Amino acid sequence: MRKQKNQSIIHNRAFILLWLGQTVSRLGNLVYDVALGYTVYLITGSPLSVGTVLSCFTIAQLLTLVFGGAVVDRFSRKNIILITDIIAGLVTMLLVVALMVEQLSIEMMYLISIVLGIVSAFHLPAYRAIIPEALHEHDITAANGLISITNSITRVIGPSIGAGLLTWLGAMGAFLFNALSFWIAVVAMIFTPIRVTQTRRKHQEKKLLSDVMNGLRLAFQTPWLRDLFLISSAINVLVLGPITILIPVIVGMEELSPAIIGGVMAMQGIGTVLSNSAILRIPARKISMKFIFSLSISFGLGALLMGLSQPLYLFVLGGFFVGLGACTFTLKQTLIQTRVSLDYLGRIFSLDMIASFVLLPLGYATASILADLWSPRLVIIVGGSIEIFLGGLFIFLEKGRVGYKKSLELS
Hints:
- The chain is an all-alpha fold and 411 residues long.
- It has 2 domains: 9-192, Growth Hormone, Chain: A (Up-down Bundle), CATH 1.20.1250.20; 213-410, Growth Hormone, Chain: A (Up-down Bundle).
- Helices cover 82% and strands 0% of the residues.
- The protein has 15 helices and no strands.
- The mean pLDDT is 88.
């Protein structure tokens, strides 16, 4: 629906219903996350079991994502979102019932995590791929910016609600909240006026695996897509992974106030909201790769401030610069939604998410190992420096890429 009549996203019924329903669902997921680890530990008394339950979700998601994207490109994205939310709602209600009758076991938790991981592998690419079907191309940047802003807000509100429900009503209350959030998303999706389209057929094969291979071929043979995947992967490994793991370590080692951790996270959230607010009015066709690469440098600057700064206010300011860079991901998503053919969007987004999900844990592991060999601050400084170098290198190379702009226009 990229050619539908242009209108403000606030007055676009399809987008508003989609956005509100999925925002409530995301809020429920964050509440669920707070209760999940606590519940598993109460059942088993083992930290290893907590990690295993989380790993079941992640592994199931990663193993299914590449096929999930291909399925999203074959069928109605609206129906896929509906079906996955219904399944997630039923599975979460099963948790509530099991707690009510005191029959919840660790084996059930493993199974539920696997099912939810598989469900998310279809739901996430479908949600990202359906945006261009709900909006005019001119409004996609604003829509993605609004989604990113509300995601930042829910990251603050969700855990707070989860902690409150866990305290007052126990895990059952938190899981029930999440189940209800899925059903709210289902109702919103039912009334979302997006037609089931049959136009996404020209690039599809009879075999699902052939569809998957065609998606991989497009991603790796298209220069600007390769660069977007590389720069976002670098951000995860070099900056986001290390600061997530090592900021608490620095605070503990240097006997700083624990409030520093909250300050960094708060400033990161503020930076994310401000940067995404600033790009709301940028038309999708005005987004350039050079602009995205330039914004990615903000991640490196933020890391350098955290690694080098002795004054605590500069340490916290580093979080703000990292937040400013967050609109890099918003613009990347907009670029994919407006430059990639509709019948490839699910596959490209699944590959994008695989790169992010696989490499962020790699960033955690690498940062932990290097921090033992060097120092936490040095790891953050090196990662930030490399990120700045890569951003500058991509800007320089972008000028000389043969056919680069042509591929960006014609994908």
